[in-house]
Model the fold of this input.
Amino acid sequence: MKLEKIKTEGLAHLSYLLTSNGEAAVIDPRRDIDVYLDPARRDGCRITHIFETHRNEDLVSGAGLLAEVTGADVWHGPNPAEPIRYAKTTREGDSYQVGDARIEVLETPGHTYDSLSFILFDQSAQDGPVGVFTGDALFVGDVGRTDFYPGKEREVSGLLYDSLQKLLKLGDHVLLYPAHGAGSVCGSGMADREFSTIGHERRNNPRLGLDRDAFIEAKLAEHHEQPPYFRLMERLNVEGASPTRRYPLPPPKPILKASAEDSQLVDVRGVVDFAGAHIPGSIAIPDDMLAAFAGWVLDPDQAIDLVCRDAAQAERSVLTLERIGYDHVESFRTGMVPVASSGAAFASLTMVGTETVRERLGTGGWMLLDVRGIDEFAAGHIEGATNIYLGHLPSRVAELPRDKSITVMCGSGARATIAASILLRNGFENVDVYLGSWKAWTSSI
Amino acid sequence: MKLEKIKTEGLAHLSYLLTSNGEAAVIDPRRDIDVYLDPARRDGCRITHIFETHRNEDLVSGAGLLAEVTGADVWHGPNPAEPIRYAKTTREGDSYQVGDARIEVLETPGHTYDSLSFILFDQSAQDGPVGVFTGDALFVGDVGRTDFYPGKEREVSGLLYDSLQKLLKLGDHVLLYPAHGAGSVCGSGMADREFSTIGHERRNNPRLGLDRDAFIEAKLAEHHEQPPYFRLMERLNVEGASPTRRYPLPPPKPILKASAEDSQLVDVRGVVDFAGAHIPGSIAIPDDMLAAFAGWVLDPDQAIDLVCRDAAQAERSVLTLERIGYDHVESFRTGMVPVASSGAAFASLTMVGTETVRERLGTGGWMLLDVRGIDEFAAGHIEGATNIYLGHLPSRVAELPRDKSITVMCGSGARATIAASILLRNGFENVDVYLGSWKAWTSSI
Amino acid sequence: MKLEKIKTEGLAHLSYLLTSNGEAAVIDPRRDIDVYLDPARRDGCRITHIFETHRNEDLVSGAGLLAEVTGADVWHGPNPAEPIRYAKTTREGDSYQVGDARIEVLETPGHTYDSLSFILFDQSAQDGPVGVFTGDALFVGDVGRTDFYPGKEREVSGLLYDSLQKLLKLGDHVLLYPAHGAGSVCGSGMADREFSTIGHERRNNPRLGLDRDAFIEAKLAEHHEQPPYFRLMERLNVEGASPTRRYPLPPPKPILKASAEDSQLVDVRGVVDFAGAHIPGSIAIPDDMLAAFAGWVLDPDQAIDLVCRDAAQAERSVLTLERIGYDHVESFRTGMVPVASSGAAFASLTMVGTETVRERLGTGGWMLLDVRGIDEFAAGHIEGATNIYLGHLPSRVAELPRDKSITVMCGSGARATIAASILLRNGFENVDVYLGSWKAWTSSI
Amino acid sequence: MKLEKIKTEGLAHLSYLLTSNGEAAVIDPRRDIDVYLDPARRDGCRITHIFETHRNEDLVSGAGLLAEVTGADVWHGPNPAEPIRYAKTTREGDSYQVGDARIEVLETPGHTYDSLSFILFDQSAQDGPVGVFTGDALFVGDVGRTDFYPGKEREVSGLLYDSLQKLLKLGDHVLLYPAHGAGSVCGSGMADREFSTIGHERRNNPRLGLDRDAFIEAKLAEHHEQPPYFRLMERLNVEGASPTRRYPLPPPKPILKASAEDSQLVDVRGVVDFAGAHIPGSIAIPDDMLAAFAGWVLDPDQAIDLVCRDAAQAERSVLTLERIGYDHVESFRTGMVPVASSGAAFASLTMVGTETVRERLGTGGWMLLDVRGIDEFAAGHIEGATNIYLGHLPSRVAELPRDKSITVMCGSGARATIAASILLRNGFENVDVYLGSWKAWTSSI
Done:
């Protein structure tokens, strides 16, 4: 019996391939399913079962597609409001055999109404379960969000509390296999550590030490964001997704057409590259931030053109976008030296350091814009800074003064660069970025 | 300006990717087109032109598909009988610009009526062409077959002679880029060397030293085979092919169903593996021989199940079969040790050596069956051997005596093993293979 | 904090790369250390600590080499008899910081006197350890061997019992990271499952339910084998190993020199390939069995020549052999068709099935030789079979009758093929193999 | 017979692997020899011959090393002044058999006294040679440099003229295989096209249309640069090189030590990255420019520390440096965001466009520094610009005014960025770069 964790960077999504004796199960597959097919075949296993812990809102599920390719069934919890078209319904106590492994269903609602956990038993060591796939109910160091049902936050927080008690009852020795790790938008306090047990969580997870009422209050006090693309995910994850591209890349674009006007021109090269030179009007979203921020900033129904370092980065970016349902990348272009050499205009974005920010503090005609999340800002910020979360910036641009110079900051300068590119695209002229940002500020004081 | 030769082993097919200054052309693309898309993107080039030297009969063209993916046009010679649906017609003297390269069309009929050659010029060194893509008109060491139009062999041989004179006129210094290399069924005397020039061919190619009449007589005296799958290729190459599989492999098959009855069970592991142990009734075609012999032995409309060493070999075999239009591989199974361990029956095929064959010579109740081509057999064979070409064996099995023991031979024992598996599947009981075959015989005498 | 398990197939050896915050530790590295250097670099981590749970006897440690390349220290338990030249000594309670992780030493002698376990703590979730690296003290489903100190088996078994109590005290929730998985010669009852916790072992591991006396008796009753190459490993693992080859393969050998006389000619192609055809006198050890059986059959001081399917298999085999200290591979040769074609002699090995074996049972002049381990044989065998363990066969060949025909069997036919090749090399003439062996026998009855 | 061209980007060096019938020859191997060993093994060939066209001055030869690994001999032309330690001497008319190929030696001095060409014959098509390896005598579109023997330029130019006549006599149909392509420092007018024949060169190569006297005068009028590292190459290529690193990368460097003071801190990330943010004092040499410019700027005897985008870029850079004898890379560091986040100081380099440059023209206190080669500058430049070739800048820094602002330009901005980093490191304060440079200037006018 072998269990392979497949991590999707950016989304911090975790899916699992369980293989045993010629059979295999996949838990929470993503859209690019080769990552399950390849190792299953290499180990001589047929994928016979696909399990979904819940209807995901942050990524496109590959469950329906994988079912089509393998002939396996998809098992999903009861979802009467929006029945999952590609799945069969399973309920507490249902049990499935995968080689020498047995998977038993536990209903663990709270994060969503349809949330399930899947308990893993080994036929040849049956005294207690070996592990449990907890989806978005229980993470390493945190528990799931409970803000998805407006007006029902209290009810679903209570449901989650009860679900967690069921999980704790499985026993300290049980291995924990959640659907997300640190960096996911599906929780805020996840540990950077990627492995744990029920027992270690019972001792250390701050949410598990509370009684029911305190737990509910704590959950109600949390602050989460819901990027607009969540709506698209919810729809796609009811309908089932189409395959990712057969031929991954659009053709490279001729250099001359370097204009940001009639498309979403997205510069994925990186923070520092964008600062050095970029096409005026382009939106900076470094490739490793696409999963987290494309859903706030880009329109999934409009064409997207990429500015990349090379074809490999373009291919990576196309795939990352497809994982969250952005299928309309139409071209890519590589490098700024060719653009500038063609005689086309380019722009730079100035990066400033701690010293400069400190000098400017308190001066007039200047604004320090901190685009971190509300909790991060609350936990500590530079006196006088204005906070607008990066995700909200596109819809709140009008609030910003056009007659001031603006320095944008965040944790390190990365999100600030995305924000600055949005400001520049919206016609703001005196914009720079505090590279190092809060980390530099706190290290240098 | 860069020219990449893409060789498809097994078919000995040569296609070409020409890149220059952000643009690219492909000459005679095969069906799995990633092999052109990837390097073009890596070098930052858009594929703007696709050229076909003629309607191929031995492999599925990827021209239509590549056009669809890239937006490029496909250029093909006039083919009034069966207009190529995915192509535009081009004629002698037409000229195309690809970056700094210029491609000029030369009509070179003979092998087929629609055969073109494409002359390559470099804009910055224009005194004489640099190279020429000759398709199946002129090879290194040989010229194209002229047996595709029954009753018109004499006419098309004459056409080919005239076409070759046009090619020779391009000048000695011109590089030669043919569509096939040694091992192809599209010619019989191709050199093992993979590079040449018009001048080197003029001096050394045996077909270029003849006058028109002698040339025609020599062509008429040639002997070529036409595997049944050529019909399928001709149809597909008018219609245009669908893409190869998105997810390359079918699921592995459970071991228990080891039976050859209701499918074409094809054992691609290798000659010696098949001899050691195989599933009774399976057809041996080692993976590196699939391109040459699947088209003689397998039915493209029926399901195919594979016996492989491992998943990688299965994947390779699926792709090789797709290149010649066999799209119905439905499962694969790995290794014979698991089959035997499951309690299923298995069989062996005895390999004998030179000494055994020599002892048997002249004895009664025994037949030595040589499955090499008629020309190979004519060039030298063991006294008393019977010759039936491997490709004809499936339809001529009834001619063989069931009351004799049969030793099968060929050049080395590889084709003989395919033949032996066909005999075994047809109920012959006393069959073995002369491993080493003609090579061993001639080395040991 | 990330923990990567590196599995070495064949040896079923498990080593670990722990990364956290720019630093990394490796536990029990093998000789080909790229497998640690590459992911550490990719994640931007310096390897700062190397831990060895004990002086390994079944594989060459890469600890000294890795220390040399990275500048990290190697930490090893006290080994006064033979101080490890490349390591520093660490003792119970010593503690090491690796990024946000803390490693604490626990002395757990028994398997060897110098055996340590390493307890893993997370700085940010400190209530109880997260996991423990147990070396060869505690496995999933089994505990370590205690037969390495002749005359002291009772003492070290007691030591191991006490060590296991220390491990159990860490708590049910602690993740288990042993140095071996199923298939290792370092234990006999390891589970096929590759993940567990202290708690799951406490409930299910058969050795953990016994009291001290019963435990000791059970350990004394076990039967293990010590291949001769263990002596070489012990020496190398005191001295420290040299790097694996810079250029992994020797040049391919011309076909003509196909003789097994003056070298150890090892045929690694596979069981069924060897049966089909092989070079007379060659020793069959399929590449995936080299780790387990080369140490019984081959002389590490003599040159080794390989017969392979292709260069990739040769490269894999060279590396597998280097991992157990066999550095003298001098050539390789690919395929038997070229050998036979050159006119050289070849031989086959007949594979028989259940029906044939059943027919022969009780007949005279025939011997059924079962080369499985004594425990396997005791657990069930074919009436009338003679048992000599494969590992002992080279030194016990003289016991076998030369006037009988011999059918060799094992679990599936794989070990039997190695055994048969040894008999053939020793001049036995009537030897065949029962393909499927005990698995086929028990499935077919 | 197969001929594989191995191109080393950056150096634009071409080496060749010729394989035929189980044997192989390598012409002009580079230092990282896996690139010859791997394909030779894959095709089942032993490398039996190594040929050097001359003692290279621009890269480290791998001939001695390859000889050691394979047992083949190295054949080199007569070099009485400095006998090549790892080679045997071969002379005009000597002949070598490699499978079915024959290699014949032609002495073609001029570029160096020891320059040889190797004529390639095919045994089975002997009427005229097939190709010729011309080393640095004859390129596509150019001929070799003749400036390596101070005071003897006229003599060696004449020798080269005579050698070229010998090559032309081989015949128009002969394929040309030179040791360099476009971008090499070993010639200035090489074509971007990578394939040609003697005949095509005879018609199009501008140097081949001259008579002896005109040829000599033309060669004397050429202008070439000799980077200081050529001295190192010449020494290493007499002695023979050691292997490249067994474990390719040094450990990553902790972020904190971000200082350029006590080492050669080389930023290989890229032109635009360096502009966006860099460590003060670091030298910008983008990874694809290392081969061309490290030899002008870096000291091979001093330690080198790298700033990279990621570990893969670091690995590539280490190898590129090793190919030109820079073996002392001691660490690498990835990305500027972590550096700035640690609180360390960083700097930017402003990129300006055509409009800015045009505005500044003629203003005081400003200097436009063009670092292109003397020939490029002569062919066209911006009125008022000062020319110092980039390679000479390190030794001519003192000539530049410290009281002016300086805009650096080149062809596209890439070499200008290297130059700007050198000025910054030397304490110049008002330095920026004209991104797009001459290409932008000429496109926008």
